[in-house]
Design a protein that fits this description.
The structure is a homodimer.
Chain A: H1 5-11, E1 19-24, H2 39-42, H3 46-54, E2 56-61, H4 71-78, H5 90-97, E3 107-116, E4 122-124, H6 132-142, E5 146-147, E6 150-158, E7 161-167, H7 198-214, E8 223-230, H8 238-242, E9 246-249, H9 253-261, E10 265-266, H10 273-282, E11 289-294, H11 296-302, H12 306-319, H13 321-324, E12 330-334, E13 351-357, H14 370-373, E14 379-382, H15 386-393
Parallel strand pairs in A: 1-11, 1-12, 2-14, 9-10, 9-11
Antiparallel strand pairs in A: 2-13, 3-4, 3-7, 3-8, 5-6, 6-7, 12-13
Chain lengths: ~400, ~400
């Protein structure tokens, strides 16, 4: 049985209580074959363990058992939105992240500058991670093209990453990617996934062809690959649904994009974990919901660096006192998916969840890791239910029904 | 929240990894009143326990809590198909099982030869389990009738079991059974469950009437009872959805029918458990998914024979090394329902599930039985999610969403 957002909206009420959602990206893991312990089990986390002892724990499926979530559905679920119904394209996410104003009808795609060899085969999907300044210069070369009466905007994001926005009538996002997600083959031809998308596919392919010409001498960034064609989904905001005044603290544009999609205000912050916790402290009085996002744990997992992921977790644990000392009414700690270092990528394993509030009905879990959370009072839950639990624990929900 | 097959299809990818699904029919049980232990708790199962120790366990509801599944929905769920949406009639199952080619519009029913007394009351629903040869002779007497321009095919299955297929225009499967599922009363009149099914009901009743005349002197097989009128449901295959090359190893036609419905290839095998595991070994290189079905456990449970069910489980445990020595990437052990000997029939109790893979995030369960599985890392899950988990653990799923 599912409590939908419409129902939720009817029972939410504003109150002075505050909720902090700490998302440790890629939090869940798998055992290190050498020690039999996961990243969380290995890390020394006295503060998280202390919070687990005072709180209630569980394991959450972001989408459903076995399904590996991308970052977008992972976060949508944590924000309380059904991650399958509220799906959002990569292009839109990145565009919103860098504050590009999307008009109705605009189609955005995420681009990579990449390296191709003389035969046109991709040798590096990230063009050696060119510096952001170089990316910006190259974007200027491609920006402002007019193709079939469609205006093309190109903006840099970071390093090799950029966005393209196509503006003109009659465009549909239902086209395939040109990014093949692997090296050793050519970028794919972009194809329409239904009849309405023929124009978009044609325009996008012409853009790619022109980019190839313009970039011919720009090795290693001598080609582009595009993915995630999408349009603004106009989701209901967290203010509308939860009657919250929400703010986001994150260090990478895509998470700003996700936060903006649900109406959060983006707080300026630095790139370190300590910076982010400081930003929380400085803005604590101005909002009643904070999404604090730690990216480094996922990066370490993606790089297959078990020890670095352990260190990031320990770093978060140290910084945690900057959060607990503010005494929020509700603290949630979880992840948007697991990223076990042994897999070197996102995985389907459920993520540990910790919820602390004065009214959480604490369980016997005294450590914050996968095995301990298995016996926790939250049980095995759907991630989209976490936000409702946070709201309940913040006494921001009225009862349902007579 | 439900990930449907359409979504699943988008994220499945072929890979060389292999999955073996071992279905121990009627696996779950209830305690023997004398000992307080279930069949699985009583059986000596060092190999299953070893696999549980290396794997992750849980308890699965085939349909939903409290609902007792028939064999068809139980298996559909284990194959990853929603057992309510993908329902399939008994007639079709048995017809497909014996390789009868159903045409579009054909209606199949499962039949029993049975014994009726002089007053027409059923005294034995299985006619003393007549030998298959006798069944085949009797079917020949009934085969080929033409009733109201409907051609009637009658084919033997095994012992007292046969199928009838009605071929002609305008037939609907929405008719009631004539099999009353008990003795001491007459076979029921077949009735239309909606207006479109009047013709089918009329034809079927005429067939039953003629069969009664033809069989009058064939005691103990002097009557027929029919059930499960149904037509071919044309389900998407496991190859379409999962991009697998699946094979089935089972010793009874109905399970071949179930396997064929989802596009599995049926491997020839013997009738013993050892034969089946040998067939797995011999065909291991030719497929990437194996459904291995053990029927004897359910039969023992249905007969209320606790000790025999224990022995069957121990026999499977002994044979298990023939499976584990092949080192499949993923091994799943479960049942299509519980059949507690103390109930002498299928039951609603959730079935133990064991999943082993290198990436399963093992739990602390070290024995494979109902109580131990209760604390397992898979928690309480829907059986239809098991196949998705198997696919994930075989690294055959890409991530969902940006």
């Amino acid at each position: 049985m599912d409590v939908d957002l419409k129902l939720l909206k009817e029972i939410t009420r504003p109150s002075p209580s505050k909720i902090v959602l700490l998302v440790i990206d890629g939090l869940g893991g798998l055992p290190n074959p050498k020690t039999g312990k996961t990243e969380l089990e290995t890390a020394n986390t006295p503060n998280l363990d202390g919070l687990a002892t005072k709180g209630i724990c569980g394991l959450a499926d972001l989408i459903s058992p076995g399904i590996t979530p991308g970052s977008a559905p992972g976060h949508m679920a944590l924000f309380g939105y059904d991650p399958v119904s509220f799906s959002v394209g990569r292009g839109v996410l990145e565009a919103i992240g860098i504050d590009f104003n999307l008009n109705p009808g605009d189609i955005a795609a995420r681009g990579n500058f990449c390296t191709v060899d003389e035969g046109g085969l991709i040798t590096d999907r990230r063009a050696g991670r060119i510096p952001t300044e170089k990316c910006t210069q190259l974007c200027q070369l491609l920006d402002g093209l007019l193709i079939d009466r469609v205006k093309v905007f190109v903006r840099s994001v970071r390093e090799h990453r950029f966005i393209v926005v196509f503006r003109g009538g009659g465009l549909s996002p239902l086209v395939s990617d040109s990014d093949p997600q692997q090296v050793g083959i050519s970028p794919k031809v972009i194809t329409a996934l239904n009849q309405d998308a023929e124009k978009m596919a044609g325009t996008a392919n012409k853009f790619v062809a022109q980019a190839k010409v313009v970039l011919a001498k720009e090795h290693p960034a001598n080609m582009v690959i595009l993915r995630g064609f999408s349009e603004h989904p106009n989701f209901p905001t967290m203010s509308e649904i939860y009657k919250l005044k929400p703010a986001a603290i994150a260090s990478y544009p895509m998470y700003w994009g996700l936060a903006k999609l649900v109406g959060m205000e983006i707080l300026e912050t630095g790139t370190s974990i300590e910076d982010e916790f400081l930003t929380l402290k400085e803005n604590y009085n101005s909002f009643d919901f904070f999404f604090l996002h730690v990216k480094q744990s996922d990066e370490a997992g993606e790089d297959g660096d078990f020890d670095r992921k352990v260190r990031v977790i320990e770093q978060v644990d140290k910084a945690l006192s900057g959060l607990t000392s503010l005494e929020p009414d509700v603290i949630v700690v979880s992840g948007d998916h697991s990223t076990p270092a042994v897999l070197g990528g996102h995985s389907w394993h459920p993520v540990p969840v910790l919820l602390y509030s004065k009214y959480c009905r604490r369980d016997k879990v005294m450590e914050f890791h996968e095995q301990a959370c298995l016996t926790g009072g939250l049980g095995r839950l759907q991630a989209k239910q976490i936000m409702i639990l946070a709201m309940a624990n913040a006494l921001k929900l009225t009862k349902f029904g007579a």
